[in-house]
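Readers of this paper often ask what the protein records in our data store actually look like. An entry from our holdings is shown next, in its original layout:
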Amino acid sequence: MTTTRPAVRISGPADLVGAIPYLLGFVPDRSVVAVALHGGGRSARLGLTVRVDLPPAPGVADCATFITGHLVRAGARATIIVLYADGEAHPCDLDQLIVELGRCTAAARVELWDVLQVANDAWRSRLCGDAACCPPGGTPIDSTAPSLVQVHAVAAGLSALPSRQALADTLKPAEAGAVAAVSREISRLTARRASQTRSAVESRRARTVQMAKQIVYQRHLGGRAPLSSWRAARLLTGLADIGARDRCCQWTSGEHGDAAVSLWTELVRVSPTPYAAAPATLLGYVAWQQGFGALANIAVQRALADDPGYSLALLIDQALADGLDPVQCRPEILLATVLRPGRRGGPGGDHRPRGGGPPGRGRDPPSRGQDSLRRAFRLGALGISRQDARGGLPGFLRCPWQPFRAVCE
């Protein structure tokens, strides 16, 4: 029997503000978030979600161009921008940022439906001039009980960590004793394998893939027993073989993706240098395929910190920076590109990792909804806004949300 998850309609700004942390995987701070909209009328769908830090004043135009470029590549018909800007001191003039966003989106024929600001536990529209509809002091965000949208997000298996740093902390090394135990097991295994024949290498490759598959399957069914140091060492030494890693890359992006994220995350945390590069790259690839751009970015930077020349991590890093659609970069395409000589980002290429800043700063690749997320979230019942240039800013003659505040199907 086939069942269809009912659509949850995001019928107003409060619903969208509540959904964004689940779209990103964490609660953004001092950020610009753009949500792409597809379709029209009462059945517009949420597409990719782009997050960047609030830019410094000289970078306002570049920030607007960057965001608009991703929206265009995603085929967005319209967008809603949400500014996360607490306090009075911002790195740039928010009005100027809104003007640039309006200019860039208009030039690209992407309709700017609204610009919201979230600050001091409240949200408000920066474009609506109707004080009765959108009070200047903002509408408080009710944190006493989860909204229907948030309940459905959790039911779909999504979570929202308190910050991007908290997301980065999920890959922090495990306690020193656990890493040391895995390191000792790795030393024993590598000593025994020093003079193995080619047939033994092929056999070990098959055993590595089989072990990883078995663990992913068990975790998919609900098992979450931690890896023993011996099994972790077996997997880490096995994944050092490119053939074994590539086979794992080809099956961890499907229905067992969540379980694969759990396995690769645990392996990254217990990995001694330089063994984290392979599982971190696999984690980045699975997260990218699932639509979690921030986690993919963090994982790839972890891989490159462990091994700056790791070719698959370099390629995924470039794909993330270019905003490529992961659907168009399935494993067989990606791996063929890695093996192609002279590819930018490969050995001797001119690619440079995008890391180097604190984990909470910079630009995250676009987040794209998982299949469950696409089924669970549907933006509906939104009107088309008319705009003018009052005060140099885009503005609404009539708030597009106003007639639809009570709709939540």
The chain has two domains: 8-163+365-404, 166-339.
